[in-house]
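Handout, page 2. Input:
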Amino acid sequence: MGMFKRMKDMRDMVEAAPGMVAQAQQLSAQAQQMAAAQQAAYQAQTAQAVGTQPGTAEGADFDPVAGVSIEQFVAVSKGVAAFGYDPAKLPEIAASRGIAAADWQAAHQGWNERIKRNRAVAQRFNQLYRAA
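Output:
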């Protein structure tokens, strides 16, 4: 008798499976929607915290460092790829773009600090680096 009960239980489980799969798919879709909403809210909060609007590069942390804009910093940073990423070549690349050695040193240190401290600056750097 135990065997027939197990067979009946197995049949009931197989009949319920399509409904359980549909329910799991609905839960997955809801979770994805919630994750997207949370991501958007987080980006808005981050932008607000640094005084910017999503998709813009504004605020004190985006001001040039020693006269070097973030766009110039990205261009020099990306230019080092042609030299096997040799950091000793950075001042030479900066000079070829009209940036004095002392200004480059200050800009290099300043931009790296901002990138580490401010997620919006890091995101903007990545966006420009990939686009260039």
